[in-house]
Amino acid sequence: MTTGSEQGGMPEERRVLRGVELEQAMAMIEKSQQLEGHFPDAEALGRARRILEGTTTYDEAAAELEEKYGFPILRRPRPTRLDEAEHARRQQIVDEARTSTALEGGRASDEVHELQDAWVAGDVTLEQMHAAVRRLHPSTADERDAGGH
Questions:
Q1: Alpha-carbon torsion 79, 81, 82, 84, what sign?
Q2: C-alpha torsion 27→31→41→124, nearest 10
Q3: DSSP code per residue over the chain
């Protein structure tokens, strides 16, 4: 069985596991982690199970870890790139945002420009870019949302 998920506008086909095959894969994951000196907890094993079952994607699981630990998680490279029209659309959005900021007398940091360029290239999703920008430049709204004052 395969499941299709969206990743940057491109469908991703992957095989999902069930029954004995799923249990064997989970046992292999747990044992290989133990052999490397890691002892995954129920949360980590549950995340691996959801990926194998097809109820969550690798990128969704990575986003959970990014939220939990507060730093970027290695993403799988996408096997396909954006088509020309989508690349042009994204470049126009970034160009307009940079122009608008410049007209107001500002400029985004080099790190933000790198993130924007990665989004234009299709290397990160819009959500990943926004999350990374907020980590680089937190606002007072972020502090309020996190329970700070």
A1: negative
A2: -90
A3: -EEEEEETTEEEEEE---HHHHHHHHHHHHHHHHHTT----HHHHHHHHHHHHTSS-HHHHHHHHHHHHSS--PPPPPSS---HHHHHHHHHHHHHHHHHHHHTT----HHHHHHHHHHHHTSS-HHHHHHHHHHHS--HHHHHHTT--
Residues 20-64: pLDDT tens digits? Answer: 999 998 998 888 888 878 888 999 999 999 989 999 888 888 888
DSSP code string of 91-132: HHHHHHHHHHHHHTT----HHHHHHHHHHHHTSS-HHHHHHH
Could you tell me the pTM of the whole model?
0.45
Q: How far apart are the first and last CA of the chain?
A: 49
Higher pLDDT, 149 or 8: 149
Q: State pLDDT tens for residues 75-91.
A: 655 545 788 899 899 99
Residue 49: per-residue pLDDT: 93
